[in-house]
């Protein structure tokens, strides 16, 4: 349901509400961060008994909120924006059709996001063809880079294997991307044909790194990684380790930086048991996110 006005009481019990950022802030007040958006959206879901709330955020993509679930962030897919007229109608139409066809909320949002990315690249109110939507979806999943859902990633890896491609996978927080990260990812990419980077969600980073982390939220960290030529796919995971995700994907090679032993790496045993390989790469000396944060706090650099 696409809301009108600031009275959300009239939509109580809705399956899915899709306010844009202005409509959302008209109800909850000014939002200053992604974390605040998630908290306020979750409060609305609970207050009005929504099954889900999808906030469309223009150039920042969209965020799906559900009770008991990790927030699902999707960066915008629009390459160029000429006219946003009708974008909201496109989103709600594709969402409704997708959910009615049995798609999950995440899958429906990914389709709606791809559809919106197409129509804002046209002048005036425009239609969207099946071919345009298919090209937008396949382009986001089968090009040289892209943020992708776990389910879509598993399918993409199957197709890559069918083409005879060697799939390499690594993981990390990648809170503030630095030269050491780039060097490491370039090296990892050289070990195969496709590189997957699994990224800890904000909640996972906070548990691992403590208060004040991450500096950059999940969607921004994933967007930056997806922009690197070495990276093919970027996927989030909410657990403390990516063991479950790795055991689902089962890459040809699992790569980790540091001084680990292969058998100590999360997911390593599963990859080896499936006939894959585990490699440990060295990090570049003198590069660390913690050092960057400390330097900023100390007023250096």
Automatic annotation (TrEMBL):
Query: What catalytic reaction does the record list?
Result: D-glycero-beta-D-manno-heptose 1-phosphate + ATP + H(+) = ADP-D-glycero-beta-D-manno-heptose + diphosphate
> Which keywords has UniProt assigned to this entry?
ATP-binding, Carbohydrate metabolism, Multifunctional enzyme, Nucleotide-binding, Nucleotidyltransferase, Transferase
The upper taxonomy is: Bacteria, Pseudomonadati, Pseudomonadota, Gammaproteobacteria, Vibrionales
Q: Does the keyword Aminoacyl-tRNA synthetase apply?
A: no
* Pfam families in UniProt: CTP_transf_like, PfkB
Molecular function GO labels? ATP binding; heptose 7-phosphate kinase activity; heptose-1-phosphate adenylyltransferase activity; phosphotransferase activity, alcohol group as acceptor
Which SUPFAM superfamilies has this protein been placed in? Nucleotidylyl transferase, Ribokinase-like
Which E.C. number(s) belong to this protein? 2.7.7.70
Please give the NCBIfam families that the UniProt record associates with this protein.
Answer: cyt_tran_rel (TIGR00125), PRK11316.1 (NF008454), rfaE_dom_II (TIGR02199)
- Report domain Carbohydrate kinase PfkB positions: 11-128
| Listed name of the protein | D-glycero-beta-D-manno-heptose 1-phosphate adenylyltransferase
């Amino acid at each position: 349901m696409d809301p009108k006005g600031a009275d959300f009481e009239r939509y109580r019990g809705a399956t899915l509400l899709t306010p844009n950022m202005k409509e959302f802030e008209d109800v909850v007040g000014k939002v200053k961060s992604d974390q605040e958006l998630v908290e306020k959206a979750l409060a609305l879901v609970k207050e009005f008994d929504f099954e889900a709330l999808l906030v469309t955020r223009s150039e920042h993509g969209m965020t799906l909120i559900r009770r008991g679930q990790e927030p699902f962030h999707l960066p915008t897919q629009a390459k160029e924006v000429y006219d946003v007229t009708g974008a909201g109608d496109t989103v709600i139409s594709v969402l409704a059709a997708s959910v009615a066809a049995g798609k999950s909320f995440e899958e429906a949002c990914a389709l709606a996001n791809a559809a919106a990315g197409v129509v804002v690249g046209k002048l005036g109110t425009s239609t969207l063809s099946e071919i345009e939507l298919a090209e937008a979806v396949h382009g986001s999943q089968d090009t040289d880079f892209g943020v992708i859902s776990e389910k879509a990633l598993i399918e993409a890896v199957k197709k890559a294997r069918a083409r005879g491609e060697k799939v390499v996978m690594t993981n990390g927080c990648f809170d503030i991307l630095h030269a050491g990260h780039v060097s490491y990812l370039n090296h990892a990419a050289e070990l195969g044909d496709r590189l997957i980077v699994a990224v800890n969600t904000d909640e996972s980073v906070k548990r691992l790194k403590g208060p004040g982390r991450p500096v950059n939220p999940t969607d921004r960290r994933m967007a930056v990684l997806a922009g690197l030529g070495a990276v093919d796919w970027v996927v989030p995971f909410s657990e403390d380790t990516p063991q479950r995700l790795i055991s689902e994907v089962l890459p040809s090679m699992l790569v980790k930086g540091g001084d680990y032993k292969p058998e100590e790496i999360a997911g390593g045993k599963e990859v080896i048991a499936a006939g894959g390989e585990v490699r440990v790469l060295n990090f570049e000396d003198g590069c660390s996110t913690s050092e960057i944060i400390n330097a900023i706090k100390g007023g250096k650099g």
